Amino acid sequence: MDKYALISFIPSMAVVIGCVAIVVVGVKYMRKFMAEDAAKAAASEQR
């Protein structure tokens, strides 16, 4: 690749990598929050 191709390729790849990272982090937080909510629901059902 020449320098001019890299000028548009690098920012595009940065956006794609950023989107994938946001999804991965979001899934991890979602699993954590779902586990917390399930534990709270189980605790409230036992009362």
Please provide a written account of the structure.
The protein has 47 residues and is mainly alpha-helical. It has one helix at 3-46. The mean pLDDT is 92.
Topology overview:
Blueprint: H1 3-46
> Average pLDDT value?
92
- What is the 3D form? rod-shaped
* Content-based structural category: mainly alpha
Rg on CA atoms, Å: 20 Å
Quantity of strands, as a count:
0
User: What is the helical fraction, as a range of percent?
Assistant: over 70%
Low-confidence stretches: none
Question: Which strand-content bin applies to the residues?
Answer: under 5%
Distance between the termini: 65 Å
Helix and strand string, N-terminal first? H
Largest sheet, strands/sense/barrel: none
Tally the helices: what do you get?
A: 1
Features:
47 residues; mainly alpha; rod-shaped
